[in-house]
Specification:
Blueprint lengths: L4 H24 L3 H11 L7 H13 L1 H9 L11 H16 L5 H15 L4 H16 L1 H5 L2
Length: about 150
Amino acid sequence: MSINHSSIRGRVRARRCVVQALYQWQLAGQNPKDILSEFIAERELIKVDMGYFRQLTIEIPAHVEELKTHLSSVIEKKIDELDPVEFSVLMIGAYELAYCPEIPWRVVVNEGVELAKMFGATDSYKFINGSLDKLAQDLRKTEIESS
């Protein structure tokens, strides 16, 4: 199986944009479709996997209550008290663990850590790592056991 590195980089870029879009969704309460249109019109989305950016920007808010339920079982903090960046990164990871079985669980956790390092507070990546690792144990148990 060959790995398409430009496709992987496009998804990494898409996740970065999604963190920003979800942050805006949380703080401004804007409709995700409006945020998506605004991003497309006003930002240079060079080499971003646009399909994946659209999917996450629309689907995460659509599944937010279910994703919060998944996360609340593995984190000690109250979901509503999370920093908006941590919340956004955790939502991306939870969504990918729940709905994107083609993405290996270790990739989901690693991408969450990298997003937290890029956008989050100094040590938030440690919280993201632990939280997504625990969630992977719940949602990807069979995959983890077979690896």
